[in-house]
Amino acid sequence: MIRPARKHKTSVRMAVSRRLANALLPNGRKMDDQLVTLRTYSHPWQAELARTVLEAEGLTAFVADANTVTMNWLWSNAIGGVRLQVPMSSVQEATKVLAFEEPTPEYSIDQSYAPVCPQCGKNNLTVIRLGRRWTFLTWILVGIPLFFPPKRFQCLECGAIWK
User: Fold this and answer.
1) For the chain, what are the domain ranges?
2) Model confidence over 46-58: pLDDT tens digits?
3) d(CA 7, CA 2)
4) Does pTM surpass 0.70?
C-alpha cells in the first residue's frame, strides 16, 4: 500500500518547537509563545554569537540545528542552515537588537607592488603557466607532481613574456 507523502521535516520541527516551548526558561518561567526563526546562519558560531547578543539584552533565544551542522557542515544548506529562534512576543525587540550594521573594512591597494611590463611599463598583464600538461601527466602516473611549471607574465599591451 502506498502512503501519501507527509511533510516530515515540518512536523519534526514543529514537535521540537513545541518541546522547547514547554521547557523552562533560565529564569524558571515557562515560555508561552511559539518559537519563530529570526535568522539563519551558515556556521554555528555566527548563530551563537547572535544568541549571546540577544541574551545580553535580556531576550530569550535558542539556536537550532547547530549540532547537525557541526557534525556534518555539508548539510548546512540542505537543512536550511543554523536557525536562531526567539519567542513570537520578542521578535520586534530581537530584530532591533540585531539590526546593527557590521563595519566594512576599508582596503587600499598599494600599486607599488603590482608587476609592470619591463618593455612598455604598463600593468595590463596576465599570468601564463607553461608546462601544465607535464605536471598533470607526472601527477597521474607517479602520484605526485614532479615538474612544477614556472609562473610567467605576459603583457596584453605589447605581448612581452617574462618571469
Assistant:
1) 9-97, 117-162
2) 999 999 999 999 9
3) 15
4) no
